[in-house]
């Protein structure tokens, strides 16, 4: 392995792969209702850190407002983002509903905590135009 990979702490190495994958995830409460208190957001972060650790994913940054949360994750290529998202939303919804039942019922009464959709965006690396140009300039085999 090249020494430049060793110098970058964001680069993950495995038996057959070298990767540097980050994603920005956003989850919104059902009907965008402002169900979160500051205490609930702190607990939501704890829950999501535990779920990420189970997937060998690093939760780099977490923040939120009363109706949504943002996560910045660093993950290995073996992790399917859709499965991670399902676990993050499922576990957090179950525990937050249980631990803050009275408060949650005031805002979310139909049995759902999160909206069924989510945002996932890739983060970091070179801009697409630079990657396209790099690929176009690669020498073709004769």
UniProtKB/TrEMBL annotation:
Limits of the Transposase IS200-like domain: 18-138
Domain of life: Bacteria
Pfam assignment, any one: Y1_Tnp
Name of the protein: IS200/IS605 family transposase
Organism: Microtetraspora malaysiensis
Phylogenetic placement of the source organism: Bacteria, Bacillati, Actinomycetota, Actinomycetes, Streptosporangiales
Gene encoding the protein: tnpA
